[in-house]
Amino acid sequence: xxxxxxxxxxxxxxxxxxxxxxxxxxxxxxxxxxxxxxxxxxxxxxxxxxxxxxxxxxxxxxxxxxxxxxxxxxxxxxxxxxxxxxxxxxxxxxxxxxxxxxxxxxxxxxxxxxxxxxxxxxxxxxxxxxxxxxxxxxxxxxxxxxxxxxxxxxxxxxxxxxxxxxxxxxxxxxxxxxxxxxxxxxxxxxxxxxxxxxxxxxxxxxxxxxxxxxxxxxxxxxxxxxxxxxxxxxxxxxxxxxxxxxxxxxxxxxxxxxxxxxxxxxxxxxxxxxxxxxxxxxxxxxxxxxxxxxxxxxxxxxxxxxxxxxxxxxxxxxxxxxxxxxxxxxxxxxxxxxxxxxxxxxxxxxxxxxxxxxxxxxxxxxxxxxxxxxxxxxxxxxxxxxxxxxxxxxxxxxxxxxxxxxxx
Length: 408
What we know:
By secondary structure, the chain is α/β, with parallel strands linked by helices. The chain contains 19 helices and 7 strands. The chain has 2 domains: 7-125, no CATH class; 133-407, no CATH class. The longest helix has 22 residues, at 7-28. The relative contact order is 0.10.
C-alpha cells in the first residue's frame, strides 16, 4: 500500500496526471484526438518529466505540454517540486524544535524523500513575511488582563553568542480567550524597552488594559501607567515568592514558603497584612530583606484581593508567559495550590525547542522559530476558567470601561 511502488503512490501519480491532462483540455478547448482541434492554432506537444515530493514520498510525473508554451497548470504548477502540504510538514517539524539535519533524516526515513538542508532553510525562511504581518497586525481595543514577561535566548551577534531578552505579551480579551500580542527582542530586559513595547501595543489599537500582571522589574509599573494610566498593575506572586526564597537556605525554604503562602492566600488584603506582620515577627531577625521587599511592593501585590478566591489565580501570576519558556529548579511544595505547583514544575514547551538550537544565527531566525512554536502552542489554549465570574467583577468595578454591549 505505502511502499516504494505501493498502491498509494501509484494512485497519486495517476490522479495527478489525469488532472493535468484535464487542465490542458480546458486550456486548449478540446479533448485529445478531437477533430475540433485541427488547425486550432495550438495543440498538445507530449509531456515532460518532473519529480514531485510529498507525504507519499517522491513520484515522477508526466506533465503535459502545449505547442505554444502557454499552458500554466494549477494543480502542480511549473517549477513546483513539492506537493501542497509538504512545506507545512517541514514547518511543523521545525516548530517542534527539530534541527535541519533531524528534519532531513526524518523525512527520508518516513517518506523516502531526500531533502537538502538548503531546501529546508528556504521553506522556513519563507514564513518571515507572515511573522512580520503577525507582529504588526491590529489588536483588539480592550484586554481584561495582559501578562508581560521576558525569556532569554542565545543569539549570535558579530561572531559572539550572547543572551538576548525576548519580550512576550499575552492578552486575555473580554471573551476570555488568550492571544499572544507580540514578540520583541533586546539585549537586556528593562523598563525603558517595555515602554517601547507598550507604545507599540497602543499604536496597534489597544486603548485600555484592565489589569497588567508583571514581574518585579524596577520601573516596569510606572512604564505601564504612563501609557495606560487606568491599568491596575499586579505584581506576579510567583515571582515574589521565588525572589523571597532566594534569600534562604534549602533547609528553610519549605517553612518560609508556607508562611508566605499564608499571606497571598488570605481572604482579604487586611488579613494578608496581618499575615505579613506575623511573618516579619518570625523571620525579620534572620531574614529581614524578605519582609522589606513585600512591604515595599505591597501596593502592587494586593490588587488581586478585590476578586473572589476562585479567580485570583487568573490574575496574580505571569504563568501564561512563564509556561511558554521558563524552567526553574524544583521548589518546595506549597501545599498543593497552583502557585506551588507552578514553582515546582514549569512547562518547557519553548525551552525544549530553544535548547535544541544551542544558539541562533541571528535575531530573525530566533523570532521565526518562536513564532512557529507559539502558533502550535496557542492551538492548545482553552478559555480561561471561571471567566464569567471574573467578567462580572470587572463589570462591577469598571462599568464605564466595559463595551456598551456588555453593559446592556
